[in-house]
Amino acid sequence: MTDNSENKNTVRAVDRALDILLCFTDAKELTLTAISQKVGLNKSTVYRLLASLEGRGFLTRHPETEKYRLGFRVWELSANLTQEDDPATLLLPEMIRLRDLLGETISLYIRNGNERVRIQAAESTQTIRRVAPIGARLPLYVGASSKVLVAYADAQVREKVLDDPEWPPYIDRQTYIDQLEEIRSNGYATSIGEREEGAAAVSVPLFNRRGELVAALSVSGPYNRLTQDKMKEIAPEVMEAAKRMGKMIK
Amino acid sequence: MTDNSENKNTVRAVDRALDILLCFTDAKELTLTAISQKVGLNKSTVYRLLASLEGRGFLTRHPETEKYRLGFRVWELSANLTQEDDPATLLLPEMIRLRDLLGETISLYIRNGNERVRIQAAESTQTIRRVAPIGARLPLYVGASSKVLVAYADAQVREKVLDDPEWPPYIDRQTYIDQLEEIRSNGYATSIGEREEGAAAVSVPLFNRRGELVAALSVSGPYNRLTQDKMKEIAPEVMEAAKRMGKMIK
DNA sequence: AAACTGAGTTTCACTCAATGAAACAATAAC
DNA sequence: GTTATTGTTTCATTGAGTGAAACTCAGTTT
Q1: How do residues B128-153 score in pLDDT, each as one tens digit?
Q2: Which of B80, B101, B124 is at the close of a domain?
Q3: Distance from CA of A156 to the nearest CA of B (A)
Q4: CATH no. for residue B143?
């Protein structure tokens, strides 16, 4: 939020208003004061910025809670943005089916540089806290989905990832590389408590019709529900779903 | 674009920036000067507003065309906005299937007050001009989808629509009411050149699991391809699709 | 009932940030 | 070559945007 970057020639009031909008990437509902704290601006300033955002329909106030939420204008814009060949849109119904079958959170990750991005999700109804908001960027060296994305990437990409100067010293490269090999032979990856304490995940690769890797599809939940055995048990199911989903993508 | 409404206490620069964003509801790509004409502002003003919008990722410049487009931030926001029980998202894959089967543009309309809103679409690849952008609001007195939405609405709603003081005098109410009756007995509506010259459409109701009307699903195209006979022929197909889609919605 | 919190809203004086005109650069069109 | 037509920068002017503080209105606490 405190990112001025190097761009000059920018309009301060607009920057601030957009920062306010961006607050809603990890919060669904916010009060005026919460926002003013988050962006570090005076209440009255935020008040007027919110008035503009609300006036144009980018935010609305929920009638009951009185809190601010994203408005229909965001949806209207995104609808025109969304390509119908956008995986995130096409695959959601199938992901929901899988979620309802397994009862755990289903996520879809793509690789972007040396990170992975969560582009779609069907949250478990039991989950209290979300794994990560959609659009969240995570490092590629921990988590089942990370390894899937690296394991099935082309050799050049894999090398580039492993050569990342920011690779953390506490993760042994050779162990990691060995894991990739294992994942390729199994067809899926699992992780327990790697990225977050108490959380486990199974992840499988998602290939498009041409057989290219496009994403990693993961099932994640608390490790007391998602034990190693349980994950092994559901893996074929998940791989099957990924296969079906892959057929939908060019 | 020239809508100040009654809201005071609003920040001018922000209002203007948001107006610029809204230009992209009916245009995919715009140049700076095009925008400045559209919103009626000085080029340099627009230049700086664009710098802010671009800096925060709400707009990007297409590397080739150099023109402005909606940026990833819009998608990121909308991803968090989109409920997974949002019909527009859930139904798209099925709509695409139907589009690929019939080769014509598939649209989904919901009623909102005395208008209908196009909430989702799978455009025919042959179509040059779009029927309407997503989010577009159209009157309820012309077009196949309008009549479907009215025909299957509850009596109170139907009455409210027919009592609209702005009902155009050149459309006879009794004829319209008779058509509704016919639509209910057929299970679908057709229209030729009603809303737009040379365009035809078949539309069917979409009911949720509880049997409530939620939307109208339409197939539209040029009337030389979509003749009355052709429409009669494909109607069962469309109704079947609507039935399947309805099962996905609470 | 009074005092107190913690929401949102309004007022107001100050001043700096946003503005438009015009000049400028960089291509594309003729 | 000239002529349009992009996008970009400069600069003086001023009024739009700002923060502090006052205020309202519910809901809690004392």
Answers
A1: 667 788 888 999 999 999 999 999 99
A2: B80
A3: 25
A4: 3.30.450.40
